[in-house]
# Entry
Amino acid sequence: MENQSELTKKILKKVRQIEIKTNRMVTDAMVGAYHSIFKGQGMDFEEVREYTPGDDVRSIDWNVTAKMDRPFIKKFREERELTIMLLIDLSASGNFGSVLESKREIAAELGSLLAFSATKNNDKVGLILFTDKIETFIPPKKGRFHVLRLIREILFFKPDNKGTNINHALDYFNSVINKKSIVFLISDFLHSKKDLSQNLNLNLYERNDLVKNLQITKNRHDLICVTLTDPRELALTPVGIITLEDSETGEQIEIDTYNKEVRRLYEHENRKRLNTFQATLKQKGIDILSISTDKPYISALRNFLQARLKKRLR
# Structure
């Protein structure tokens, strides 16, 4: 068993690895795209200056004009500082990964990439880790050491619970963050299913009030839903009879993966559920960033940013 010193070294090494990896990705192009897409939330008064022909007369400061006996206008600058909030699902299903990295590791890397991009723009970053309860909340702050703390928490925080309650996480976020923020909700959006006999799948995309709560958050903030998937969650490999276990409830079911119809139904239902969920979000005007553990997330992020910039420029 590792002693505390060895564990601390292991944690610091992993955090440093992610910092180095994601810093390579935070290129000028990446930071430029971030700056172009995520704008400040208003205008700050900067100074007054003497009026020159062509200036907008609506900007005239009449008090200063009266005192100086000649026209002066108010000069404003964009309020650039933003608040980035990372809402990350730490339910047990996030520990799954059939390729090199688990969904939780991908979430940590993506979160650190976004956090370092924010830091380059002198923006604040905060974090909410949740399961079916709020596991921890770190208020928004600036700086490299703050970002490194966030990465450490995402990777190594040990949640008390295993389940998922995205609705509760959204309610909590909306109650503690009043300033309009850029919100990245990172989750596999899976919800455990109790009645295993009616379905091949052990997880279902959470419905009920989820879309309603997502829309409420979207109306108050700039919300991006980041959906994490693993290829083995969408399709089965023919390896014989296997036992599937719901990582959040511990419930199990045996299925025969040699059976083509079983594999077909499993993939069909999973893809249908995913597509329906994403189509519903798009219909509500909620942005989606789709990440799969078997594909480079940086490519997906770049494509998302480019598409969002084009939409903004229309």
